[in-house]
Recover the amino acids of this structure.
């Protein structure tokens, strides 16, 4: 059988990794796929640089549309990124009857519904294993490996930059700003790290996992997104003393009321494997009703790990593109006509547990007042850590930290209590609130 | 489209789990698969008991051949186990043109080559996700998710019974025999635990993973198999002091000389995630040249976790059975005509590192003699731990433990040195040798 021909848009880090891995392992990949897979055309704005990377045998053009227009190309890999030109090119490739492989989580999390519908109508596949957790085959696990299960929740460390920063903060007892600068110096954080540190990148990824896990449309606009920029070394230390580590988790959960979809720093029990995922590594936990808890771990970014996922998609398409579309794996795991209409819950309706740190005047009755407010709202306390008085304020008053771990409660209820606590004259600083996930 | 019809052979723990999960989640599974999947016929020697489990709507027979002979059945699930009648039934089901799903690792590790060839010739699939690591979709990850990679090695905790025993030995400082009895009482070990504790079950599983990872035939007879029955609490404690845990690992590795295929207790650095997999849980690490190190974790046994894998295979077959056989995923990941002829290495040719514990007379020059023998053979030492003299022998002589960690060496070379050491008059007891894997 003659090789399947692939056009590659964007010869950046992942693009060159994909080209190199496919070339290095071409014999082994062909022995698996039963057919050769060749990148025969590449589009990049810097034609000369791209040509130098791929060598003379491959046609390099500056105009991505020339790749899409090439009738010999069966599959288009989109590695440009972003919502702009990338979206137009993906839609045009679909319209031209090409299968598409993309690592573009932002594009799919925001415009996935439109893109998947167009692909479905045209009878082509849009594959996106590389969009979530790099080389870890988590999309395949969720969409095929765990297909017997009613999935209960998914929780993952799905942004390497923030996990690197949190690992360093804990290891070295440093604050966020210092570690961010180090991460930028080492190449773990970009010059503009906003999408990573504010949780947006993780929210793109968990939005895609949520859709696949529960059969709902991609709804990035409904995700709750909170980053790690406000985390201090003190909270990481207190959490450690209480038996927890702080990780930025993307979480999606099925409840009787609807779907939870949220990204925020979370306390996780130290004995969980995921609490021990350090540096820039990623890990995703999936809880299914039959299988129980499973975990998938690996590199979540980088040239060749991401290329590993891109090429796995190429092989899948090579295998399935001659098959009846009805026999393919649906884009969002569920058949297009059988999606769920479960709504994404507003954050106030989410039920979870909390770590609270309050800077209080070291006076008799303060703790009783605080715990009384929680009790009045029906919120149970799991643990309290009260520090010795450690600082004398300008008014000559002793201050101390009180840490409270709550049991599960509705976030809206907790917000009301936090407002009451904050208004107390004995509460001397903004209350720190970090969510806590037991993940069992 | 009318439902695909499934016949189930063997209504034991996994059989009833499969029936129950398929029934409980039938609506959700159909929404994914695009087609209903129904177990319409069950064979079990205890017809009355099986009928009570499945209810009146399902036909229950005592003769498995009646299921295979039923022209309405598309897929046969074999959950009988063992090499005997199970093999005959699987071969007959294939001959009858049925697709087969099995959890029978023993059968496939020993007779896989014959079975897969028959299936290939007949154009049917034999799916076996449930045969390795229960509900963890490791077969799918190796065969599809990591298909871009030249896989370097696979190492896994793939037997829950032995991992439970090792976890308890470490936790409670108890010896093997005591913990085995406890495991049997709790249902983690069978009345005859030989296959588990002697490493045979793990060897069946790693044999299958080896074939898939490297495209070689299944060759259980070439596997090196060593169980955990000789492990003592002392070695677990010493390993801990040196920064290691002892796990029973199934390991397969590609080297320039050939394929390593082995099961034995192994020291693993405590900071590796896999060293922290406790109790009856399973985990498999896979190292690929592009993706780097990945890990897959979950329940490796039990009714519903194993059912999760059986049903995932049912869905895969439901999707692919109308497709051209050339477009399906090959049984052993590589196309039947493109398998490798890399040989499995004898254990003497394996290169790894070692933990040695020697009971020696507490005399001057003993350590120099031991390390001299290693140096003469070109074996480097990584660490030495010498204990205070702790016991006076009957001859009135002080004895002590010397622990030596070596760097990588050929096992055949080490064996020669061990024979020399054992012959020394100052070595007072059989030398304990445990292999050590850095897994990085």
């Amino acid at each position: 059988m003659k090789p399947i021909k692939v056009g590659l848009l964007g010869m950046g880090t992942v693009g060159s990794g994909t080209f190199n891995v496919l070339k290095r392992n071409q014999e082994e990949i062909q022995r698996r796929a039963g057919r050769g897979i060749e990148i025969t055309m590449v589009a990049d704005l810097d034609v000369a640089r791209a040509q130098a990377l791929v060598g003379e045998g491959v046609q390099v053009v500056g105009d991505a549309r020339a790749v899409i227009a090439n009738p010999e190309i069966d599959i288009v890999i989109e590695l440009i990124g972003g919502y702009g030109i990338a979206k137009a090119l993906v839609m045009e490739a679909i319209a031209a009857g090409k299968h598409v492989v993309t690592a573009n989580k932002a594009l799919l999390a925001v415009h996935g519904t439109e893109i998947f519908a167009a692909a479905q109508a045209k009878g082509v596949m849009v594959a996106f294993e590389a969009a979530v957790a790099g080389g870890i085959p988590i999309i395949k696990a969720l969409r095929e490996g765990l297909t017997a299960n009613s999935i209960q929740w998914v929780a993952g460390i799905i942004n390497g930059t923030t996990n690197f920063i949190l690992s360093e903060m804990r290891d070295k007892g440093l604050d966020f700003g210092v570690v961010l600068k180090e991460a930028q110096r080492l190449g773990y954080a970009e010059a503009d790290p906003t999408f990573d540190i504010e949780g947006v990148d993780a929210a793109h990824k968990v939005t895609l996992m949520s859709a696949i896990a529960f059969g709902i449309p991609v709804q990035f606009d409904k995700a709750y997104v909170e980053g790690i920029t406000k985390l201090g070394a003190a909270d990481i230390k207190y959490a450690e003393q209480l038996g927890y580590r702080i990780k930025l988790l993307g979480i999606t959960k099925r409840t009787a009321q609807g779907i939870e979809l949220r990204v925020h720093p979370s306390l996780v029990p130290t004995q969980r494997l995921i609490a021990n995922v350090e540096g820039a590594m990623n890990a995703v936990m999936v809880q299914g009703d039959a299988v129980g808890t499973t975990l998938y771990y690996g590199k979540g970014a980088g040239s060749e790990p991401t290329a590993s996922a891109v090429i796995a998609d190429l092989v899948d398409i090579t295998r399935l593109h001659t098959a009846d579309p009805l026999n393919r794996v649906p884009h969002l795991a569920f058949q297009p006509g059988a999606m769920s209409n479960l709504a994404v819950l507003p954050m106030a309706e989410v039920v979870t547990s909390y770590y609270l740190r309050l800077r209080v005047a070291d006076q008799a009755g303060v703790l009783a007042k605080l715990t009384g407010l929680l009790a009045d709202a029906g919120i149970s306390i799991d643990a309290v850590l009260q520090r010795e008085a450690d600082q004398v304020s300008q008014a000559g008053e002793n201050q101390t930290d009180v840490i409270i771990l709550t049991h599960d409660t509705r976030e809206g209820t907790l917000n009301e209590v936090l407002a009451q606590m904050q208004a107390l004259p004995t509460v001397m600083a903004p209350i720190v609130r970090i969510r806590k996930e037991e993940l069992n």
Summary: The first helix of chain A runs from residue 13 to 24. The longest strand of chain A covers residues 244-254.
